[in-house]
Every structure is written in C-alpha cells, then in structure tokens.
Amino acid sequence: MDIKPYMLFFFLVVTMGLQAQSPADNWYFGEKAGVKFTNAQVSLLSDGQQQANEGVATLSDKLGNLLFYSDGDTIWNRNHEVMPNGTGLLGSATSTQSVVFCPSPSDSSQYSVFTVDDANGSNGLNYSIIDIDLEGGLGDIISSMKNLAIDSVSVEKLLAVNRCDRDGYWIMCRPKTGDKIHVYALTSGGMDTTPIISNSLITTNSSGHTGYAKSNALNTRIAMCLPYHNVVELHKFNAQTGALFDPILIKIPRADGSELGRP
Known about the structure:
Elements: H1 4-11, E1 26-29, E2 33-38, E3 41-45, E4 57-60, E5 66-70, E6 75-77, E7 99-103, E8 110-116, E9 125-131, E10 140-141, E11 148-151, E12 154-162, E13 169-175, E14 178-187, E15 190-204, E16 213-215, E17 221-226, E18 231-238, E19 243-251
Antiparallel strand pairs: 1-2, 2-3, 4-5, 5-6, 7-8, 8-9, 9-10, 9-11, 12-13, 13-14, 14-15, 16-17, 17-18, 18-19
C-alpha cells in the first residue's frame, strides 16, 4: 500500500525554516483541509480550495497573515482565488514534495516558487516568480518568469533551507536515478542553475527516489526518506558551501517485520 498520502500531515512542506514561526502559521493541504497555529493554539480552517493528496506548500507573512498556497500546479491567493497566471506550473499532484516557496533575497515584493515533477514525469526542477504587488496586492506570477527550467532530472524530493549568511537559500533535490544529490543557490545575485553535487549511499532507480526530505531546525542535518529501500539517509550539511557529507543509513523495518532495508 502507498502510505504517502497518510503521512502528508506530518511531512507537509509548508515553508522552509524561516527565521520566524509566523510564515508557517497557516497550513492548507489534502481535500480542502487546513489548520492555523496561533499562540500555541490550533484551529481548523475550512476555506481552502485545493485538493491534493501529496506535496503542497503554504506561505504567510511575518504577522501570520496568509499570502498564498499551492499544490505545484495551481497557486491560490489569500482570498482563496486562483491567481490569473497561477495555473500550469510544472509540479505534480503525485510528487511527495511538489512545491516550495522562498521569499526573494533581493526584493521584498517577490517570491520564488520551486516545483518538481513526479517519478514518471520529465519536467524536472523549475521555478517561477510571484510579485505580491500585482493584482492589487493579491499577487500573481510574472509572465516572463514562469516555469524557468533549472534541471530536467530531479523528481519527488524538494527542500529549501537558509544559507548560513542569510543571503538566500539552498534548494535541494535528487535526480530520478543514480547516487547524487543536487543543491542550488538562490541569493541576492539571482538563481544559480549550476548544482553543487553531493553523494548518496543509495543508488536509486525508476521507483527508488520517492519519499520526503527534511532539515533539522539548525539546518545542520538533512534526512532523506527512501521508502523503496526501507531506509532514511541522514546527512550532515554545510550551510555555507551547500555540501552534504558523512551520510549514514537508518534502517526502517517493514510492517510485517521482514527485511530491515535493502540499500
């Protein structure tokens, strides 16, 4: 049984470890579901419009006010309306981590939207730019900055973490096949499409790259779930250089107790 939809709530990619908690106050996911975190209290939200079984993202401002949310194909604004140019992104409804938002390091009115395709797709990793000043302050994707290709090989996993100098973010993903992990730099100087390449202990094939990636709060460790191999691969991470190193495997038992991983 594919358990990814049932794990969504726990691995939901709503943001990427920003300095304040407020940008992650609102979560929209699943079948028009949502929750809001306010002063350690949790309340249900019933105004969401997206219907997604897997990777989604939501971003709020520093005061906890909703900005927009997406399933990797469509972006809804704070009024839960589809942005006029906010459809046809190159993420996938069946990618575990389809989409992530990053505030621009150089322009406070702009946000980068990164998407990755699913295991069977060929769109790879792309990005678009939202200008929140468009559409009367509701935001929209800049037409000339939509679905800009970074690579054609990355699928399923997508993670953004702060650079140690706070000048932007590291965008982390994994190619469909092989034993490499790609990390890209988004800084005030723009998007660098040349990857920093690190090694994995696992060589993936056409189905072995699914699963989630997640950083710890200090962005010093990166965990990558590889459910086909029944392992979590844990890396140390250098937030100054973008390199992952010293990986170890944590074996996860199967539900029936058989075979503790097959790296």
